């Protein structure tokens, strides 16, 4: 089965593919697309273009995105675990446990999306600071790339994607 790249909101064929082999039998499971430099640049450009729309999302909307991800993993738990077991030679029992951890990770991120704020800091410890406060505001740093190892393919992705979605702060 030939897989596709997901870039700029669309599934696309790649120029080159690599065989994905079963760690047990070495039989071919799928053909995995190899992203070219142009594919990577398109992904970066697409993420950069999406920054503005993401920055307009409220904390509630970001939490809803993460809750939807949680629901999808709950709904497709068995299939997701079977893919992990097939591709990484992880026993199904442990693959199911990984999906449970992935669900928790996205749930935690959804909860944090509603709590992430800046800080109010009393300035009265300084001379002339009586009745004054300082504050911090969190601002996104922009597009980042994250590479995850193979041993926990869903949960380690969730540890990067979940907080990234949760932390996108609304701009004025």
Report what the structure shows.
The protein is built from 5 helices and 6 strands. The protein is an alpha+beta fold and 172 residues long. The strands form 3 sheets. A two-stranded antiparallel sheet has the order 1-2. The chain has a two-stranded antiparallel sheet with strand order 3-4. 17% of the residues are buried.
The helix/strand series, from N terminus to C terminus, equals: EEEEHHHHEEH
Structural class: alpha+beta
> Overall mean pLDDT score?
90
Sheet of most strands: 2 strands, antiparallel
Radius of gyration: 21 Å
Give the tally of β-strands: 6
Strand order of the largest sheet: 1-2
Helix content: 40-55%
Give the strand content.
Answer: 5-15%
The end-to-end distance, rounded to whole angstroms, is 46 Å
Outline type: elongated
Low-confidence stretches: none
Number of helices: 5
